[in-house]
């Protein structure tokens, strides 16, 4: 579902931060209203990495795809009326621009 990890031609470097940990960090920022810089280190990724991945996933429309998958899964299980669901940016307080 997420775009493939970039491959560094020169090799080496740090291991890519785990997508699940980064997703948890993004959800933390979105639900608490803290800034990217205030992100606690417990997520195992720097705020810069989390913000960069958020930006990459936004550009790749990962959020819209994830929303569609969740609606389809819950709808197939008869647990959700998708006509009553919508994503509205008013409820998301995540700051942008790395501040």
From TrEMBL:
User: Which part of the chain is the Insertion element IS402-like domain?
Assistant: 3-67
Q: Which InterPro entries match?
A: IS402-like_dom, Transposase_6_like
Origin organism lineage: Bacteria, Bacillati, Actinomycetota, Actinomycetes, Streptosporangiales
Source taxon at top rank: Bacteria
This chain belongs to which protein, by name?
Answer: IS1647-like transposase
One Pfam family per UniProt: DUF4096
